[in-house]
Structure formats: C-alpha cells, structure tokens
C-alpha cells in the first residue's frame, strides 16, 4: 500500500523577540505562495524548523534561501533546525545557484575622464561632418556625370520629387509666412506706435521677411517634412534590402536616389522662398492696413522706395545652401538605417534635428558674413 503524502502546513508562533516557524508535510510548488507569505511576515529573529518536512522541492528551497538572504541583509538572525541530509544538500545547491547581481562600484569621474568624453564627442562630430562632406562630393560627381551623359539622368524621378518637395509644400509655407507677416506687423505697430513711427513698420516687415524669416522658416518647414521623408523612404528601402538589390542589378544608388531628391530641393526651395516672401508681405500689409491704416498703395510705395534689392537677394542666396544641407542630411540618415523599425525611427528623428540645427547655424554664418561685407 502507498501512503498519501501529508499536506504542507506552516505553523507560526511569535514572541516579542523571536518568530518560530515549523514546516510539516510535503512542500512543493502548490504550497509556495503560503510559505513565502509566512516568511515575509516574520519580524526579528527567525527559527525555521524543518524536522516535520517529508518532502522539499526546489521551489520551497528557493523561498527558504531567499528569506535567509533577506534576513542576513537586515542583520537579523535566521536559524534552520531539523534539517535532513537531503534538505541540506538541496538548500546548499539552490543557494549556490542563486544569481548574484553585478555590482559596479561607483567611480568618480576625473578631469581626464571628462576630457576623454569630450574628445570622443568632438571626434564623432568631426567624423559625421566628413561623412556629410563625402555625400556632398558624391552628389556633385553624379550630377556632373548626368550633365555629361544626359541619358543616365532620371528626369521622371526629378519631376516627381519636385512635386513632393515643392508643390505640396506651398500651402503650409504660404500660410506660415502669411501668419508671420501678420504677427510682425501687429507686434511692430504696438512698439513703434509709442514713438509715433508707425510707418516704419513697413521697413521692419520688409527687412525681416525678405532677408531672414521668409527663407529661414521655409527651410525649417522643408527640413521637417522633407528630410524626414527622404530618410524614411531610403531607410525603408534599406530595411527591405532594396538597396542591395539595386546594387546587384548594377543600378547606381546615388544616381537613382540621391541626385533627383537633392536636385529637386535645389530647384524648389528658392521658389518656395519667393512664395514665402510674397505671403509674408501680404500678411504684413493686410495687418498694417487694419491696425495702422496704412493703405496697400502706401505700403507698396514705401516698400519699393526703402527696400533695396539686396534684401531679397540675401535671402535667395541662402536657399541653395539650405537645400543642399537638408537633402544631404536626409539621404545620409536614410543610408544609416539598420534592419529594424526602431533604427528607422531614430534616424528619421535625428535627420530632422540635424537638418534644422545645420540650417540655423548656416543662417547665422551668412548673417555674420553679409554684415561684415556691408550687404
């Protein structure tokens, strides 16, 4: 006859300074939750009696070893009594197999460590700049080769990207510039009215829009929508191994992907800048008419008389440089995408941030340059 194993029971008796726990029966995974709860409720010194245990499996041994380790961490006594040879062996095996967390001692960074980190970041930035410069050279080389061999040029792709980059961006660029002109006129009139110089709001709007804000904000909008689009499109092709397939078929990736996109930006960004300038002037003129009573005819006359052609040219000259930056950053980021969607998202975000930052820095450099040459 076989005898049924005794059910697992946990008997607890507590005094002021000690908690005694007696285990009876066969302990397996089914009794683990009750055992863990009783061991966690113990306060002070603990004496665990295992003399009544008929069977002890790995789960119960893990609970006992964990409770003993927790008690030792709190400097509380934890005593095991009534252990059989099998229980001793099992508890020793489980204790030896328990994972130990990797403890990394905190290290205080020295000046040398800070210099090393700074140097690595500077070197990485320099390397990134060299990669962008390499992509610029690649684009110029493929563009020159397309001029020499027009049959290799993908005119259909160029038209498509001109539509995506330029035509579809007209509404948002025009609306943005119109609102910027309205804000400039309103804020300028509020300040200039204090000095009785409301008429100079025309000069403020003209110089701000034509020289700086029109092309700069247009480039920022284009960087946000186009650099991300370039990165996502090229990155998706790279994830699906279409880039590798193109190379296998003998198709030049720069010819097929880079040249049409960057050239479309070079052609369309100056046009978008002119649209932004016109929309900004219309918005500023409308607000000046409403708020200051400056009629459209007076606004136009003062605009023509007091605004030199160089204010317009300064903004237009910046456009090709902004276009190159946005296109190269977007294409470069797309080629850095790995084989997973997370990499695609990271590179898309990085391309937008990098393009906008580079556009603003370039605009600042141009502003200093034109100020030095007196334009």
Protein described:
There is one protein chain. This protein is of the alpha/beta class. Helices cover 71% and strands 9% of the residues. The protein is built from twelve helices and four strands, in the order E-E-H-E-H-E-H-H-H-H-H-H-H-H-H-H. It has helices spanning 32-40, 58-73, 85-97, 111-148, 155-165, 170-192, 201-239, 242-248, 253-291, 296-306, 309-335, 341-373, and strands spanning 9-14, 18-27, 45-56, 78-81. A four-stranded mixed beta sheet has the order 1-2-3-4, covered by helices on one side. Strand 3 (45-56), helix 2 and strand 4 form a beta-alpha-beta unit. It starts with 8 loop residues before the first strand and ends with a helix. The relative contact order is 0.09.
Question: What is this entry, summarized?
Answer:
This protein is an alpha/beta fold and 375 residues long. The protein has helices spanning 32-40, 58-73, 85-97, 111-148, 155-165, 170-192, 201-239, 242-248, 253-291, 296-306, 309-335, 341-373, and strands at 9-14, 18-27, 45-56, 78-81.
List keywords for this structure.
single chain, 375 residues, alpha/beta, Transcription Regulator spoIIAA, four-stranded mixed β-sheet, 12 helices
Which helices and strands occur, and which strands form pairs?
Layout (H helix, E strand, L loop, with lengths): L8 E6 L3 E10 L4 H9 L4 E12 L1 H16 L4 E4 L3 H13 L13 H38 L6 H11 L4 H23 L8 H39 L2 H7 L4 H39 L4 H11 L2 H27 L5 H33 L2
Parallel strand pairs: 2-3, 3-4
Antiparallel strand pairs: 1-2
């Amino acid at each position: 006859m076989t005898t049924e194993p005794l059910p697992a029971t946990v008997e607890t008796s507590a005094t002021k300074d000690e908690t005694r726990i007696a285990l009876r029966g066969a302990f397996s995974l089914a009794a683990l939750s009750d055992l863990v709860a009783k061991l966690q409720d113990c306060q002070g010194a603990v004496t665990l009696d295992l003399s009544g245990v008929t069977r002890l499996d790995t789960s119960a041994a893990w609970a006992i070893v964990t409770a003993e380790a927790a008690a030792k961490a709190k400097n509380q006594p934890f005593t095991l009594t009534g252990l059989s040879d099998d229980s001793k062996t099992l508890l020793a095996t489980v204790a030896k197999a328990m994972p130990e967390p990797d403890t990394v001692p905190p290290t205080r960074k020295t000046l040398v460590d800070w210099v090393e980190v700074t140097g690595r970041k500077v070197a990485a930035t320099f390397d990134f700049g060299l990669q962008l410069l390499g992509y610029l050279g690649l684009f110029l080389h493929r563009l020159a080769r397309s001029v020499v061999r027009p049959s290799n040029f993908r005119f259909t792709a160029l038209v498509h990207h001109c539509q995506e980059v330029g035509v579809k961006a007209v509404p948002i660029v025009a609306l943005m510039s119109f609102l910027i002109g309205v804000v400039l006129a309103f804020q300028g009139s509020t300040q200039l009215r204090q000095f009785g110089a409301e008429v100079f709001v025309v000069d403020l709007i003209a110089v701000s829009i034509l020289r700086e804000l029109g092309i700069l904000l247009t480039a920022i909008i284009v960087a946000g929508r186009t650099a991300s689009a370039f990165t996502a499109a090229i990155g998706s092709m790279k994830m699906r191994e279409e880039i590798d397939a193109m190379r296998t078929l003998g198709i030049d990736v720069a010819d097929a992907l880079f040249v049409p996109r960057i050239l479309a930006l070079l052609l369309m960004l100056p046009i978008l800048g002119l649209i932004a300038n016109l929309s900004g002037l219309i918005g500023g003129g409308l607000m000046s008419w409403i708020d200051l009573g400056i009629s459209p005819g007076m606004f136009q006359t003062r605009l023509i008389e007091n605004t030199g052609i160089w204010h317009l040219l300064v903004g237009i000259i910046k456009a090709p440089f902004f276009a190159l930056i946005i296109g190269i950053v977007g294409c470069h980021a797309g080629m850095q995408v790995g084989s997973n969607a997370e990499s695609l998202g990271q590179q898309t975000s990085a391309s937008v941030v990098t393009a906008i930052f580079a556009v603003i820095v370039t605009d600042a450099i141009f502003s200093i340059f034109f100020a030095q040459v007196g334009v």
